[in-house]
Amino acid sequence: MTMKDHTSQSEINDEMRAIEAEARARVDDGGAPELHPRRNYPPYRSSILRHPTHELVRVDPEEVELFSPAFGHTDVNVLESDLTIQHRGEPLGERMTVSGRVLDGEGRPVRRQLIEIWQANAGGRYVHKRDQHPAPLDPNFTGVGRVITGENGEYSFTTIKPGPYPWRNHLNAWRPAHIHFSLFGTAFTQRLITQMYFPGDPLFALDPIYQSITDPAARARLVGTYDHDLSVPEWSLGYNWDIVLTGPKATWMESEEAHD
Amino acid sequence: MTEPKPTEFIQTPSQTVGPFYGFALPYERGPELVPGRHPHAIRLHGTVTDGAGDPVPDAILELWQADETGAISREQGALDRDGFTFTGFGRAAVDQAGHFTFTTVKPGSVGGGAPYIVVTVFARGLIHHLFTRAYFPEDAEAHRRDAVLGAVPPARRATLVCVADGHPGGTPSYRFDVRLQGADETVFLDFDA
Ligand SMILES: [Fe+2]
């Protein structure tokens, strides 16, 4: 288990600001903004011993990597996209929907692929035996959902808004509310696990996992948008979040619209 | 001809799988790409360790591979385990000692190349997953012609090759340890996709 770290939030903030300033200076010098988080991000203490120190070896994907598992409706029951109906009663919390599209790097829909989500309950507690947060479990909420994307890459989940929760990265560390997302593309190289956040969270600036993405525009891509048109009167609040997988190289060979 | 890439479709950043995937990502018989009783079953197992050499008890790995003939499955239902269909995909969480075990078959050669299994590693503390490949020690001849192994500095190539470690219960066993950091750090791949 994680050791308790007594570093203060303000020390962590200083570390995060120094890294961001250095990243910004690189962009100002003509470098490309970093699209992904840094694997080596010391303010997130657990990354220190868990990132490779060698540069990744750049290679061309071969046929195996250019395909991906074929998921189908035998894998997922349609009811699994509604996390609020998995038990006898209604879960506590703000009922919400999150919906959007999964696209590749050329904006083409990622069809019939698997999305898995998991999250804490409204009190910030996971149904996981190692979660020590003294917030109550909700007998009516597990916090796991799955869906297969539609013909336009679309997906939708019904759930409750997860609560923020404490963790032991440093003293008084709190994760902003988030939903974990796991996605597959048409090529295995497009595999992605990430987290969706909620607009305006006061914990963004304090969270080393969110801040491990050094480019502010890239970080903002993880924040869903509140869309009043997706809210259902007297029922649920609607969020939109589109996800773009890497590409396009990975999708050329399967593309029906291949141009040569 | 390739069209210019529209700038508005910029990839969504990765985030760590975190510590609490255990009730969500593992699924029934996920580590068994084939049942253990399959006549050509092999065991692929190993330990995930960190830069201090300590086991990582909260990692989860995925395999993706061709079948025994070198064909890539297009069967729908990649999470299904009907006992007969080979879908080429598997997922295993490590145990408290950082150890994972898959049951699968050795893939055939795809397009004449050296057989390999794509291994993807996720873990708490790992903010962006890592891809690697597990090759087989008996294919040394084919490894000399392999483009990916050729791109790896010779001193590090062995990290991509499984070690044959016996036949427990009659099943050929291969060990593929994943060292996230350190002297024998596993080679991780960037597919430049
Ligand atoms: Fe989480």
From TrEMBL, chain A:
Write out the ranges of the annotated region (Disordered).
24-47
Cross-referenced Gene3D superfamilies, in alphabetical order? Aromatic compound dioxygenase
Domain of life the protein comes from: Bacteria
Entry EC no(s): 1.13.11.3
Annotated keywords:
Dioxygenase, Oxidoreductase
Listed GO molecular functions?
Answer: ferric iron binding; protocatechuate 3,4-dioxygenase activity
Q: What is this protein called?
A: Protocatechuate 3,4-dioxygenase subunit beta
Q: Which organism is it from?
A: Cryobacterium cryoconiti
Query: Lineage of the source organism?
Result: Bacteria, Bacillati, Actinomycetota, Actinomycetes, Micrococcales
Q: Which gene encodes it?
A: pcaH
From TrEMBL, chain B:
Output the Pfam families linked to this UniProt entry. Answer: Dioxygenase_C
Q: Which Gene3D superfamilies match?
A: Aromatic compound dioxygenase (2.60.130.10)
User: Which keywords accompany this UniProt record?
Assistant: Dioxygenase, Oxidoreductase
> Is the keyword Iron in the record?
no
Q: What is its EC number?
A: 1.13.11.3
Recorded superkingdom: Bacteria
Q: Quick check: keyword Transferase in the entry?
A: no
GO MF, one term, reads: protocatechuate 3,4-dioxygenase activity
> Which protein family is named in the record?
Belongs to the intradiol ring-cleavage dioxygenase family.
Please give the name of this protein.
Protocatechuate 3,4-dioxygenase subunit alpha
Organism, by scientific name, is Cryobacterium cryoconiti
Instruction: State the gene name recorded for this protein.
Output: pcaG
